[in-house]
Every structure is written in C-alpha cells, then in structure tokens.
Design goal:
335 residues, mainly alpha, 3 domains, three-stranded antiparallel β-sheet
C-alpha cells in the first residue's frame, strides 16, 4: 500500500455519483457510492478515505477495484439476502394475514400455529417456523406471551404455564404455543421507553427544543420498511457524543444502536441536512429579533500591520548629506 493514491475511473461524473449517493435507499450501496465519490472528489490514500466513510481500507480497495473494472454494474448489485426466493408476494401475504388482523383489531389474539397452518394450506406444503416469523416481521407483527414448542401444539398437547399478555379465552382448544398480534404500533420498543419529558443526560433536548427541531428532521424515505427508530433519541445520542467526546461504540444502551445513530449523522452530513437545519434555526432567531431572515450586507474586516510612518520607498531611501557636511573634518586655525 504505502503512499499509493486511490483514484476512481470516470465512468460517471462526480456530480452524477453524488446524486446516486444521495438518492440511494440501501445503506450499504450508499456507502459504496460514497467511497467512489470521495475518490473522485479528492484522490488520496485508501486509509484516509476509509476514515472519512467509516469502513476498512480493504473495503475501499475492493470497491474501487470493482468499480474501475466493471463500472456502475459493480456497485448496483442486488446484495445479500432479500426476497429473491419467496413463496408469496407482499400483497398475497397481506391477504393471508387479513383475517388475523381483524381478530387482533377486536382485541383477540391470533396464534403463530394458526397462521402457519393457513400459510401451509395456501402454498401446499410445510414451512419452517423461521419462515413464518420472517413473514410476520415483514408486516410488523410482534410475538407476545410465553414460548412453547410448535411440535407440542401441532400434536394437540396442552401448553402449561401463563401466557403473559395473551388472554386466557384466546387460547385454542389444542393449546397453541405462541401468540402474536399487531404490536409495533401498540408496544413501544425498549429504546423508545426513555422518558422524553425529562432530560436523562445534560446533553438531551428539552421539550421546547425538540418542538423547534422536530419539523426540521427529514422524513423517512418512501418505500421499504417504515421508520421505527425514535428520532429524538437519535438526536440526543448525537448531542451526547458531541458533548462527551466518547466513541460511537461507547454510547449508553438506552440510546438507539450506535450504528443507527452514526448512519443518520453521516447521511445528514453528506446530503446537507445539518447545514439546512443550521440555516433554518439562524433565520428563526433573526426573525424573532425583528430582523430580516438573511443579512442584506456584510462587512469584511482585516487587521492592519504598521510598518513605517512614511511610505515604503521613502522609508527605505538612505538620506544624503550635503556637500558642505561631506568634509572629513573641520580645520580650526590656532594662534
């Protein structure tokens, strides 16, 4: 590696790469475009680009090499995972869950075993329970109650023990093992249970400050999973890092995951959100003071350095003596 400068090929212009980086919805693909953008904007060593983007130098080398060789196609890849292999479309899954959603709206509890049987009847063969849980997670369903094995419920063996939040009358005659309901809107996540009305840390926002800042937070992008993280907690976490100077990985556990906070901070830094928030707040302060939102004039001041009382040319010219005073000595006659 040494002092080698990392450069990206000009398959796309710098502005085109920046536009793709800002419009990309997948974080890992946006990170790739950010690496290309940094290499196009200011070619430098891979270690410096890695520190700016937040990746390892080997990742920078791998992305740059793939982009230089294959172009845009090396960046716009489908990535790992995803729904390239699935039994039902999202619309068909919603139709499958609709009867159970109606029951949940009435306050009844649907069970994972019942939904699993409905899914197997729909596709014509058995599925693993992990497939069912991924399906429920995609549509925002949350598991509640006490776990028991699906095998026990399948053979009709009653399940012993308390079902927790699941009401007793919602149990099936066969003793279904797991209860689920539409819970993401009803049960707040652990990180959202922080008392927002009071400051947990000195750097946390007050209710009045959050009321001013909340309208300036960018909304969630359309498509994909809905935003589930509490944005006030994200802002509080960023202010905590700024106030204490701690590492991102050292954030207290009552904040959102450090990777989530860092992603929002980096995204808002790159797309100009921080600058827009600062501009909006400055304009609000000026208007509140009875001034124009933006200044109409500017004064440029510079420091003056005193060199001489006279002009430069005059000050550096050596004074010439008169001819009368040029004699080496005066002759004085003696008596």
């Amino acid at each position: 590696m040494g002092n080698r400068i990392t450069r990206a090929a000009t398959h796309l212009s710098r502005d085109a790469v920046q536009k793709r980086m800002q419009e990309e919805q997948h974080p890992w693909r946006r990170q790739r475009w950010e690496i290309i953008y940094q290499a196009l904007r200011t070619p430098r060593k891979a270690e410096d680009i890695a520190r700016t983007v937040g990746v390892s130098p080997s990742t920078v080398h791998r992305v740059i090499a793939a982009y230089n060789q294959a172009g845009v196609g090396a960046i716009d890849t489908p990535g790992k995972g995803g729904r390239r292999h699935h039994y039902l479309t999202l619309e068909q899954e919603q139709i499958l869950l609709q009867p159970f959603l109606v029951r949940a709206a009435r306050g009844e509890m649907a069970t994972a075993v019942e939904i699993k049987r409905a899914l197997e009847a729909r596709i014509g063969h058995e599925v693993n329970k992990s497939t069912l849980y991924r399906l429920l997670d995609r549509h925002g369903w949350q598991q509640i109650g006490t776990e028991a094995s699906l095998a026990q419920a399948k053979v009709g063996k009653p399940v012993e023990g308390d079902m927790g939040p699941v009401r007793q009358e919602s149990r099936s005659a066969q003793g279904d093992a797991v209860g689920v309901r539409k819970g993401r809107e009803q049960q707040a996540p652990l990180n959202a249970q922080r008392k927002l009305s009071s400051q947990c840390y000195p750097s946390d926002l007050t209710d009045q400050e959050w009321a001013i800042l909340e309208p300036l937070i960018p909304p969630a992008k359309p498509g994909g999973r809905p935003r589930s993280v509490d944005m006030r907690a994200v802002i509080d976490a960023i202010f905590y890092v700024d106030r204490t100077g701690c590492q991102w990985r050292a954030l207290p556990h009552d904040f959102p995951p450090w990777s989530t906070v860092w992603t929002y901070f980096r995204t808002w830094r790159n797309d100009g959100t921080w600058e827009r928030i600062h501009t909006a707040l400055r304009e609000q302060v000026r208007v509140k003071q009875g001034r124009e939102p933006t200044p109409s004039a500017a004064i440029i001041d510079s420091q003056s350095v005193k060199t001489s009382q006279k002009g430069g040319g005059v000050a550096t010219t050596v004074a010439r003596r008169s001819k009368a005073a040029s004699a080496i000595s005066w002759w004085i006659p003696t008596a």
